[in-house]
Amino acid sequence: MGLVPSVFIENMRVRQMGSNDSKEAAREIVVPGELLAISSKRAGSGTYSEGGKIYAAQMGIKSIRPDSVSVVPLSGQYMPMRGDLVVGKIIDVGSSNWLVDINSPYPSPLHVNEVPWRVEFGETRKFMSVGDIVLLKIVGVDEIKRISVSMLDHGLRKLAGGMVVELSPSKVPRVIGKNGSMIQTLKNMTGCRIYVGQNGRIWIDGELDNMVLAVKAIKMIEDEAHNLGLTEKVKRFLEENKVTGA
Amino acid sequence: MSKDVVADLKRDYITRLLAKGMRSDGRQFDEMRPLKVETNYVGSAQGSAFVQLGDTKVVVGVKLILGEPFPDTPNTGVLTTNAELIPMASETFESGPPDQTSIEVARVVDRGIREGHAVDLEKLCLEPGKRVWIMFVDVHVLDYDGNLFDAANIGANAAFKTAMVPNKAAGLGEDVPLPVKHQPISITTVKIDGKLLVDPTHDEERVADARLTVATIETGNVCAMQKGLDGAFTLDEVFKVVETSSRIGADIRSRL
Amino acid sequence: MGGAPTDLKLIDERGLRLDGRRPDEMRPLKIEAGVLNRADGSAFVEWGMNKVMAAVYGPRECHPRHLQNTERALVQCHYNMASFSVEDRKRPGPDRRSHEISKIISEALTHVVFTEYFPRTSVDVYIEVLQANAGTRCAGLTAASVALADAGVPMRDLVAACAAGKVANTIVLDLGKEEDNFGQADIPVGYVPRTDEVVLLQMDGDLTREEFDKGLHMAVGACKKVYEVQRDALKRRYSARAEGQEEGA
């Protein structure tokens, strides 16, 4: 071993493909160990470099850019990154923090200093208990992957009601869409409040029939994330099944 | 871990849908999920079947070996059922000796096929008191999305239908088909918020108040039942479930 | 390993084996990726008469906690044979052989997984043999590699595996059940094609150094073919899907 793969060193998450990608190379499915480029370009996420060559580390879509080569994975665990918005669930309560499951291999402690209320030592249970759903931001990930989360930002809070849909974190970019276009479409046409967590959890609330519609649309996106014309298909689906009065 | 974390978030959503007569996967309350059965799935067993019920996938293997009968039933073969809920099938299954859930699945499936006389055990007796065929029914769960009882029961019935008694290997003549007598099919129903739903998914099982599995044979007679979970059924509900189980059981039976 | 019954011709006059194969011929191999719904990654391998399913969960929190490694992920493999997978029904649960196989497969996979990027976690790999006909550990390792890739676990490469052996004084590839029972040697090999590394190797029987050399090379050659089948299975899983992922709505 002894190599230093650049898989997770960068801070920049490859969320979307830019339009200046080489379309041919971009659509190719690659598998771990596959040679992607012999180049001095930067080995981006989903890849590693060895001896001046860049190889795929995960199964996914090859993406060649002017200055880097990366792989957009088709599956994989959610690996938290600073700045991510996540939908979490409280799984334990301590005297000065809560433990949050963020659908990642690492449960995250939410400290009393990171919530918008003044919480006395031992009073944590009065504010949030096991089972509560929360909207949080990842504020830190250290070298041994200890995660810190916070509720101290605009819009972050405990979520009440609604329901949470889980899908593979690698599909989240499709649910958001280019410049948020897909998520806007979903919200507009179902009238639901929707929060998309980077961790593959989506919170939805609204009229029951609209929620059912939103859930179906998200399932469609998950199943067909790979297909062309998905945005149009989803738009059509929502149009045809629109709940009157929504 | 995370799949189970979210499951109870769905309780509210499921119950709200039920109030409007809907299930989260769009099925009717008395509708089974798509069923796929492939028999003779493993050549190493005398009979076998791969069953896919919705996303639940199980393999049932039937193996016959020669042995001694139980002292209190010297004239019949021996039937023994085992279920392995292996960790591969769900993050909620742990490795190790069978837990209560695995044991319950095995015993309920066993009850259905034994009391329903799926196999004529007397025909499996070679020498009364001395030599009989011992029939092992092994249920191996590969992918879990609820309702192991029915998936395993259907698998066992399908496996019996195509199983052969290995006489040749035992020097007892030609192989013959396993002496199948009846096809006791079990149908499982759960009660959520007073509504009765057939063939529950994992999400539905998790939020269910009570569960009732009923095995019936061709005549509509009931041969085995098991109520589970800590809720309760009214008598009317019990009769309703028995009726539905018999009707749906007949349909499944006709497709095997 | 032992003497065959006198009427069993492991290699006939034409140099063909019991099932008609030539000494350097592999049994038919089929791999399907992503066959289970619940697991993070999965693969099903049909190799000759072997039927093996592999599933991966993780990286996830490491259980048991005391085995946790603060610097890297553990790759924990659990190899198991279903009761009905063998001629003589096997009692459920792992026996000593299963424990050993689990260990060596864990070690083989650990070599290729980027474990240092998931400290304190476990990558759990489950291998179930549904039907056995010799070579199940190679089939299992082959399936497990595909399942890991299907789960999106970052790896340097896939591990391909195949066994070679000696029957009737001939070096042969990919032993079948009778050949394994009545042959003279068995060499299961796990191999990483890109780096030409051997990550699993066992041997039992009696071989001269030349015979072993020939056997190992034969097995490695086969591993390269197995590798192509693994890659194809993964690409096919999503081949219809490649086109739209880029659209980004």
Give a written overview of the molecule.
The complex is a heterotrimer of chains A (246), B (256) and C (249). By secondary structure, chain A is α+β, with helices and mostly antiparallel strands. Helices cover 20% and strands 30% of the residues of chain A. Chain A has six helices and 16 strands. Chain A has helices at 23-26, 124-127, 172-176, 181-190, 208-223, 230-240, and strands at 29-30, 35-38, 42-43, 47-50, 53-56, 60-64, 68-73, 85-93, 97-101, 108-111, 133-141, 147-150, 157-159, 163-166, 193-196, 201-205. In chain A, helix 4 packs parallel to helix 6 and helix 5 (208-223) packs antiparallel against helix 6. The longest helix of chain A is centred in the C-terminal third of the chain and has 16 residues, at 208-223. Mean pLDDT of chain A is 85; it is low at 1-26. Chain B has one domain (2-183): GHMP Kinase, N-terminal domain (Ribosomal Protein S5, domain 2). Chain B is built from six helices and twelve strands. By secondary structure, chain C is α+β, with helices and mostly antiparallel strands. Chain C has one domain (29-232): Ribosomal Protein S5, domain 2 (2-Layer Sandwich), CATH 3.30.230.70. Helices cover 29% and strands 28% of the residues of chain C. Chain C is built from five helices and ten strands; from the N terminus they run ββββαβαββαβββαα. In chain C, the strands form two sheets. A five-stranded mixed beta sheet of chain C has the order 1-2-3-5-4. In chain C, strands 6, 7, 8, 9 and 10 form a five-stranded antiparallel beta sheet that branches. The longest helix of chain C is centred in the last third of the chain and has 30 residues, at 209-238. Chain C is globular, with a radius of gyration of 19 Å. Chains in contact: A-B, A-C, B-C. The interface between A and C is large, with 51 and 45 residues.
Q: Per CATH, what is the topology of the largest domain in chain A? A: Ribosomal Protein S8, Chain: A, domain 1
Q: State the secondary-structure class of chain C.
A: alpha+beta
- Classified by CATH, the class of chain C is Alpha Beta
Proportion of strand residues of chain C = 25-35%
Please state the overall shape of chain A, judged from the principal axes of the Cα atoms. flat
Largest sheet of chain A, in brief, is: 6 strands, antiparallel
According to CATH, the homologous superfamily of the largest domain in chain A is: K Homology domain, type 1
